[in-house]
Amino acid sequence: SLGSSKWKDRKEALDELLAVLSANLRIKESPELGDLAKSLAHCIQKDANINCVMTAAGCVEALAKGMMTGFGRYRESVVGPMLERLKERKATVTDAIGTALDAVFLTVS
Fold it and tell me: What are the contacts of 8-14 at 24+ separation with CB within 8 A?
């Protein structure tokens, strides 16, 4: 689970989530998705393991692309934490977050 103290468990949960989100071209809105988006943003901002951060960013990207304009309502809760993490020095991390931010911005007019 995302709350596990072991990074491998978090990474495994994120990998499974990414597979599900990527497999669905259209993701139907539901109240739980707001909590999911916030959890992913928190992971991007706070997780010490960059592999978890990059996978979480991929999940945000897939969620935004799947929900399209419906994701716009979660923009405020995810953009701030993601921008915070852009201070990271590793290009692979900032690239993953940048791609996710691009997907988020495409959901709003």
Answer: 10/43, 10/47, 10/49, 10/52, 11/49, 11/51, 11/52, 11/55, 14/43, 14/52, 14/55, 14/56, 14/59
